Amino acid sequence: MKLLRQTPPDPQQLALQLDFFSSGYSSQPAVDQPAPKHVPGSAAQAPREPLELFPSPTPSANPAAPGTRRRVQLHEHMLEYRLLRSKRRTIGFLIDDGGLRITAPKWVTVVEIENAIREKQRWIFAKLVERRERSARRLQPQMQWRDGATLPYLGVDVTLRIMTAQATGIAHDKQARELTVCLPPDAGEQQLKDRVQGWLQLEARRVFAERLPVYAEKLGVSYRQFALSSATTQWGSCTADGKIRLNWRLIHFALPLIDYVIAHELAHLREMNHSPRFWATVQSVFPEFVAAKKALRDHAPETLPAF
């Protein structure tokens, strides 16, 4: 989530947005660690690198990625990383498509860098696992727009049923978990997508309109208006003057996740920041916010139907 500011700042236009992923789905955030203090001549006096710290001979998932490839033993794990030297003053950690990338000052020794890696190894391994799982989801086959296909709606899969008819229409059978779409005989795939997307957006507007007043009352706040969003990177946003925008794709998720986003955005009307007081405000009306936040972050956009 990020705080957007205009120049000059306008309190009425201040907007806080809830991102698809707190770190952004294209890359993990860089983490900085203070570099050891530089003592003149220390680089020349540093111990030689252990023999096991050598550039990896194995092919990389991204051979074009910059940096010298090295490996370091972390207990039973052998971790490969890319080392880049720069004029920066801190040691930076970044997880990207090429794995772990370390950016460090030119005067910091490899031994000092790998001591920093050991200190951060829990974070590193957690982010590498997240990245691998996200990549695996991207490789899953895309939805086929045909009779019998399924798509998520309010946290459950509904089956598409396509009927040929001159009149167009769409009907949802909640008990059978089926969505019947009537289309002309010559209708193409895009017409089917348009009909389903239109229905989902109507459902999103209906559900959001029902849930917003519930959490506004719990928080003791008033919002001026709400609108659907088709943003590619945010689930929702809130401005200081009470305008709420909610991504219609939230209708794919179970109601508790929708409620979390709504509670999150409305809580900004009491705390226009992401301070501890803000999260305490969210927790006061949505105690399970940590699990909901993680569940949303774990759902990459590419796992949702493409319209």
Automatic annotation (TrEMBL):
Protein name per its UniProtKB record: M48 family peptidase
Coiled coil regions in record: none
The organism's place on the tree of life at top rank: Bacteria
Domain YgjP-like metallopeptidase positions: 90-299
InterPro entries noted in UniProt: UTP_pyrophosphatase-like, YgjP-like_metallopeptidase
Spans annotated as Disordered: 25-70
Organism the protein comes from: Noviherbaspirillum cavernae
